[in-house]
Amino acid sequence: MREDIREGMHETMTIAPRLKSSDNMTLAAPTILLVEDDGALRTLTARALRQNGFNVLTAATGAEMWVSLRTSVVHLIILDIMLPGASGFDLFRRLRRESNIPIIFISARGSEEDRVLGLELGADDYVAKPFSTRELAARVSAVLRRGGFEGAAEGIADGHVPEVLCFDGWQVSLTRRELRAPSGAIVDLTGAEFDLLSTFLSHPQRVLGRERLMELSRSRIGDSSDRSIDVLVSRLRRKLQASGSEPPIVTVRGVGYMFRVEVSRA
Predict the structure, then answer these.
(1) Which of 80, 90, 91, 244 is the most exposed place for a label (fewest CB within 10 A)?
(2) Is 158 part of a structural domain of the chain?
(3) Whole-angstrom Cα distance, residue 194 to residue 136?
């Protein structure tokens, strides 16, 4: 291993942040960092992503990933779980301590336990191998849109006011995909969490079963199970629960979930 790569594992890094709306005007294409140790699959996937209009950087190990993040602006990471040395899960945990760059897991480990763990950690998506490169490119585009790369600046020049929904002092901008707490602080949500919240806001005070939630949600977890939906609901509920207050999402035993509070438009 080269010395500069070895050093990259220990140095304090400056990692590119998640895109802001103003970045849309200056970036022609997002840069994707593909971290995959299988050389043939890495080459094939990188080529397919480039053909779909993305700039692509590649890395075979976590150490090489850190070097790329130190030297390049990266807008999304595709991260294999089974890597030599530190696993993708371990790398994800460190990444989340230092950055909120969108991350998509890819793995031959497609079990429910692994998908649930990826959701619990806060990944933006999880794609099991073998996968279609067209599907992966579509999922990358969806995650980037949720993060604001495309369309976030639309409506500003013509004076359009983004649609905002309110409940219990909270505000949700559907256009900006932004959740603001009663204190005014912005609460960070993954793409799947925001899609789930939007579904609840569209059906307030109605009981929704798990299958119905999977059907209505736009989140990119088409192979969801009841348990993975439960994990997403639990994470979203924790983020919505202000100190001393009741969470707005309640469990209806044996049926599903209900968003119990009234929702209004600002």
Answers:
(1) 244
(2) no
(3) 20
pLDDT confidence of residue 226: 59
Mean of pLDDT values over 110-125: 77
Q: Is residue 92 a part of any domain in this protein?
A: yes
Among candidate residues 75, 188, 192, 187, the one with its CA nearest the CA of residue 125: 192
Same-domain status, 12 and 141: yes
Q: Which range among 32-41, 172-181, 220-229, 237-246 shows the weakest confidence by mean pLDDT? A: 220-229
Counting the structural domains of the chain, the total is 2
Per the structure, the complete domain to which residue 129 belongs is given by 3-147
- Compute the distance between CA of residue 230 and CA of residue 8 in angstroms, rounded to an integer: 38
| 236-252 pLDDT tens trace | 999 998 656 788 999 99
Sheet containing 164-167, strands listed edge to edge, beginning at the edge strand earlier in sequence:
186-187, 178-180, 170-173, 164-167, 264-265
